[in-house]
Design goal:
mainly alpha; about 110 residues; flat; about 80% helix
Length: about 110
């Protein structure tokens, strides 16, 4: 349905806007975790930390803001498509929790 709903550049903007936004939030999470949990073991090194991730967050944010200003319809539709999945996420999360509780009570 999504593939039939628009032109390629519109579909590309839907996807890229949300991908870049999620990547920026993921990289920003690196800073949050390093600040809130400084004693956690670091199984990998972040090359160029803190400068490379900070530059990525700034440039990715600028790109996302530009896309939101220049292509309002496409970015809003991309956001709406992702938000349509939120109820399913909570449903599956609740189902998994209920299944784990049932397995633990039957094991006792």
């Amino acid at each position: 349905m999504l593939a039939l709903s628009g032109k390629y550049d519109e579909l590309f903007t839907y996807v890229m806007f949300m991908m870049v936004l999620s990547y920026v939030l993921t990289v920003a999470g690196l800073f949050v975790l390093r600040r809130t949990k400084p004693d956690q073991p670091r199984p990998y090194r972040c090359t160029g930390y803190p400068w490379a991730p900070a530059i990525y967050v700034v440039l990715g944010s600028l790109w996302a803001v530009n896309a939101a200003v220049e292509k309002k319809k496409e970015t809003l539709l991309g956001t709406a498509i992702v938000l349509l999945g939120v109820p399913f996420y909570f449903y599956w999360k609740r189902q998994r929790k209920a299944g784990a509780a049932a397995r633990s009570s039957s094991a006792q």
